[in-house]
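Example with several molecule types.
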Amino acid sequence: MSTKEISADASHFRLWEFFASIRLTIVLLLTLAATSIVGTLIPQNEDPAAYVQTFGPALYRLLSTLGLFDMYHSGWFRFLLFLLASNIVVCSIDRLKAIWQIVFVKIPAFKIARFRRLPQKEEFHDDRSPAQLQDLYAAFIARRFRYSRVEETDEGFAVFGEKGRLTRLGVYVVHLSVVVLLFGGLVSSFFGIEGFVNIPEGEAVQDIRLRNTNDTLRLDFAIRCDDFSVSFYDSGAPKEFRSKLTILKEGQPIFQKDIIVNDPLRYAGINIFQSSYGEVPPNEVKLEFTSQATGKVYSKQAFIGQEVVIPDNLGTFVLKNFERSASFKGHNIGEAFVGVLTSGDGNSTKVTLPLRFPSFDKMRRGRVAIALAGYTPRYYTGLQVTKDPSVGVVYAGFIMIILGCYITFFTSHQQLCVEIIPAGQKSRIMVAGTANKNKVGMQRKVAQMAEELAKLG
Amino acid sequence: MNSSSILSAITFVYGLAGFLYIFAWVFKKPGVGRAGTGAAIIGLAGNTAGIILRWVESYKLGIGHAPLSNLYESLIFFAWTMVLIYLFIERKYANRIIGAFTTPLAFLALAYASLSPNIDDRIQPLIPALKSNWLIAHVITCFVGYGAFAVAFGISFMYLIKHRDPEGKSTLLSRFPRVNVLDELNHQLVMFGFLFLSAGIITGAVWANSAWGRYWGWDPKETWSLITWFIYATLLHARMMRGWHGKRIAYLSIAGFAAVLFTYFGVNYLPGLHSYQMG
Ligand code: HEM
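Resulting structure tokens for the full complex:
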């Protein structure tokens, strides 16, 4: 055998040891805790310009190189998580070999000497002979333990009971769940989508914007917002945001749902959440046309881009658009609708209808004065659109972690031995027990068992 | 009489319980210690009544919801879980000195809730994001865990005092539980707390997934709860390594509780969006 092989083996062994050690676990857990703090002190994923302003260009470059502006997705943080996963896997394999032999045996081994050596035992005497007690005790133990058997010893015989062997696997369930969760996170970061879209009432969209990259993504269906409503409490705090959504495929409505916060729409693996809202320029107004000649008033509903014919041959009016800050002769008059009035002889005039001064158009002194009699405010709904194929995996991990922790913390693998030794015509009884956890609790249980056995009649 | 005034009164009952436990310990008056237990039980009953009454009041206001929706209500519940867990331990271990180190924490939580001018004790209607049963499960599991960690913190503190004089030569320490009992109790409480903290993080994640479509977003509150989880996981593992018993475990338990407090209070001073105000 060459020396090279030996050293290769040794380093292999050392690597295994390294990953199997709990010391590494402790270092990793504390490092993860400490480094995670950094990302809560520096706001994550902000606009680079904002960072430069806060930190200055030099520090910005340094922090950016270290990945601290998106640190939970940085290479080094992922590497720490990878180390943790490797640590768990190696450590589990390492220990599972020994545990396997305890957990998966047909006939568990009992050694009376082991129980005799236990520091705390209960002893008492019974006037009956060992033979009289045997069945009584065997039945008692069999009722309370999943596995039991009677065996002769050098002094008499013993009844053994055992239960909770499988609980030794609880801790592996916990550890496996951590690996499952990390795997879920990985799946999510590769195949997950997190985007958003704002849809004005009455409109449909097919493209969403991705949150991290700001790219657009085309869905294979369109989302239409039929209606959005918001209600408030008397205090002014929001009570409910509600969007009536329709999913359209090739223009055909195929699914409809009202969504509110905490009750999203789920369709074809894509989830649509109510997330924000805002106002968009209204596209429908109520207008009043007053004829200069007769003083008659005509009310009409007008939509942007549609022609309205004014009675009495006063011409036609087309509402063109809505302006956030319109100007009139160089003055800012705030929000206004702008339209074009065409009189019977073909002359066109631009008409401005500011929201703040509904009868503003009177001042034009034309043949007809147009006044704004009202308009319907129009909302857009802000939707969060996500797809995350890892949710099932992650939820399975959640269940495992709770189950595993419960088993690990509050259940144990227990063994009990009741030895019955002849003492003349009578019997001397020794009760002893062990558990892999909560030894104090087991001690109490042994004492209680001894008391009950002594009373068996 | 409304729930807020009952709960303000309970603040003083808990204060009295703490005082009696400390008095009984320092002056070795078991009778006073029993009075401390009486005060703690009355306080717990009043605390329970206050929570239930507040629930009823919210329905009378027409905005009915479980009283677990803001800082005030969570502090009230926090005090409740701490005292409940403490009383359970007092019964099981028959030692009232632990009360001297734990009931004052419940007093502080309630005093902060009732007296701080920054905390609004009015019943508020739920904003849309908070309308979820997962929120209720989330708050309950988190604060049961926090309650256990708070009691573990008090016990770790006792450990650090006791371990300088494990034989109890000083008369003040003679009736302390033995160091290994304190160590074991600390471990038990941390295990219990860890289970509930895990459940709290999980229910929070499920809630976030139903409200915002993501179960984990690394916002500061989520991250700090994970940091807390890492610290207690370290404790559980460190305890199984040779030499990591007692003092170092007590320090870890105290560090864990500091992380709990930071997750709870400190995070509001960090940049981020995980606040109760979030729409
Ligand atoms: C976030 C990650 C981890 C979590 C949440 C976790 C959780 C736990 C829990 C709850 C226990 C039971 C503790 C007790 O009985 O008091 C435990 C035990 C243990 N853990 Fe971990 N663990 C993690 C990582 C690791 C890693 C990386 C290793 C690798 C060395 C490891 C090795 C062990 C061992 C050897 C035990 C004792 C098992 C036994 O009793 O036979 N753990 N872990």
